From TrEMBL, chain A:
Record protein name field: Alpha/beta hydrolase
Keyword entries, A-Z: Hydrolase
The species this protein was found in: Streptomyces doudnae
Pfam families in the cross-refs: Abhydrolase_1
Family annotation (InterPro entries): AB_hydrolase_1, AB_hydrolase_fold, AB_hydrolase_sf
Alphabetized GO MF terms: hydrolase activity
Residue ranges occupied by any AB hydrolase-1 domain in the UniProt entry: 31-153
Record has RNA-binding as a keyword: no
PANTHER family reported in the protein's UniProt record: HYDROLASE, PUTATIVE (AFU_ORTHOLOGUE AFUA_2G14860)-RELATED, MONOACYLGLYCEROL LIPASE
From TrEMBL, chain B:
Record-linked PROSITE patterns: CARRIER
A Pfam short name: PP-binding
Record protein name field: Phosphopantetheine-binding protein
SUPFAM superfamilies hit by this protein: ACP-like (SSF47336)
Lineage start: Bacteria, Bacillati, Actinomycetota, Actinomycetes, Kitasatosporales
Recorded superkingdom: Bacteria
Domain Carrier: 16-93
Amino acid sequence: MAKIPTGSLTTHVQRLAAGAAGGTVPDGEPPVVVLVHGLLTDSLASYYFTLGPALSAAGMDTVMYDLRGHGRTDRPPTGYRLENFVEDLSLLLDGLGERRPVHLVGNSFGGTVAAGFAAWHPERTATVTMIESEPPVAAWAGHMAEGLAHARRDLVHDHAIEWIKERYGAHTARLSRGAARILRTTTLAEDVPAGRLIDDDLSALRCPLFAVFGGDSGLSAQVPDLEAKVAGCRTVVLPDQGHSVLVEQPARTRDLVLDWVREHHARRAGTPAGAVG
Amino acid sequence: MTTEATTPTTPVADESTVLARIATLLRELPDAGLEDAEIGRDTLFHDDLELESIDLVSLSGLLREEYGERVNLALFVADLELDEIIELTVGRLADFVVASLRATEES
């Protein structure tokens, strides 16, 4: 288990080098892909057994890590604003000695972290893929404030966990208990909606942006806005699919991410100038 | 005397040895609370040990340290369906480790 210091914290990171999980590695410097997981019930494990090995086998250096407060990374009592998460990622890349601009893939809140990183560290970002995410704009902060206040109010009660167990099973109940622990022992619920934002015009997002949504999730309503505001933004909406795109459609997600990174890596590696555009 | 244990002919890919070693690794897993757990072939990772997926990541790292890169739990799990992961037993994992070790011994 690799743990490396990132400022005052110790971060749990798992790397899969290009080809470490089999497959063939193309010539030249491989792209590096950083996978960012979601809030409360999530950890790098969501990628470790799905997307991670597939990216490595496709010849990509793959980095997975646990966000602060999650998985096996430290859980400080305070400091859960978006800029803290973004700074952690920057320190993590420093600690890994990573100099290449990275392809970021974020699930749910992880996509918001990825977009924040792209806005505030554009020189270190190659592309951003958001899976069922919102960029860190004022509307996002509003949604998070509401959702987190709700979760904190409901999950502290044992009968709520019992209800979740009856309705969704023991596994989901266990995840909910873990989420309740984070909410009870940290200021995450207040901090996340109170952090630094980007302007509504999304002008801060200058790298290629790929957004994947489930058609049944309310978040897919962002598609026209993203396409209008971010030049060259690509969107995919998976029909009959809710918020859990990564978990419920791992093969489809893998193919979308692989194609996206391959295409943009080839472009960065040097396509003839006349071919661009 | 001490060189004997490191000779390549040592039968490491013995099923009961591997099972016992996995049980020890599980009991020593940080933050998993399995110090006193009873662990056998039929023990379920999910329902009996109540392991979180992040614990499986830790176990994967420990298996690699123990047996080398040839035992790749991430690849094994990536090939399973969700219901197979939920029904994963310690015995099935031990079989996978033994098969991985034998495959490399023979090659």
